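Morning. Coffee machine broken again, so started the prediction first thing and wrote up yesterday's gels while waiting. Chain of 247 residues, entered below exactly as on the submission form.
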Amino acid sequence: MMLSVCPWHTAYVGLAKTKEQEKKNKEKKQRKMSTLQRMMLTSRIDHKPDGFDRIDKCREALCALDNSGWKRSFHQRQFHEAYIRACARVFFKTDGTAAFMQNQQKLLELNGWECIDQEVLVSTPRRFGKTISISMFAAALIFSCPAVECSIYSTCKRISTKLLRMVLRFINLIHDKMDIPKYKELRQNQEEIMLLGPEGAEDIRVVNSYPSRVSHPSQKRGLGFLFQRVGVLFSARLRVQGLGFRV
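Came back before lunch.
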């Protein structure tokens, strides 16, 4: 007895096989990457943060403060850009020997800088946001730069204590706004905040806030008074301490 197969059944089976093969080919095509794409993906996975990434991270942290109820004025933005330029070497200090010198020209071109000065002098009237801008930048710097220590010198104990409290407040705001776990707090007192960063046991980040006194001869009292009242001297000279601010 011979069994006959209906033509429609044969066509249905063939169509099902064709559809299955097309599905497999489509999935295979989606998984297939070119050599260039594979190299780019590998480099992206293996990429370690460098000075350029840290500068971008610092700017992102400052923008996070803008969106957290502390929107910066036009002049405060200018201050911060000047501070970032002065700290350019600090952002590259953990990238190996001569990393900054090798990337200096690229750094100038990307940021539109003509030169990189390590000191910034800001002179404005009172109530212009100098102290707040220093607190914001110190918080963004500690957030973005590994193994950094910055020292801030104020005209009296009251201001230095308040400034350190503001730095800690801004650091917490940055973490909350960017939804990043807070760094472990190793020590905190009236003059120091010490945090453990995410890049290993040696990634200790410190902010010091000290009271100081601007001394000057009696015949130069006017200049000294002016500096105490309206001046901010920012210095990012590379030392063991990292960098210093004088408010």
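The longest helix spans residues 7-31. Going to sketch it on the whiteboard this afternoon.
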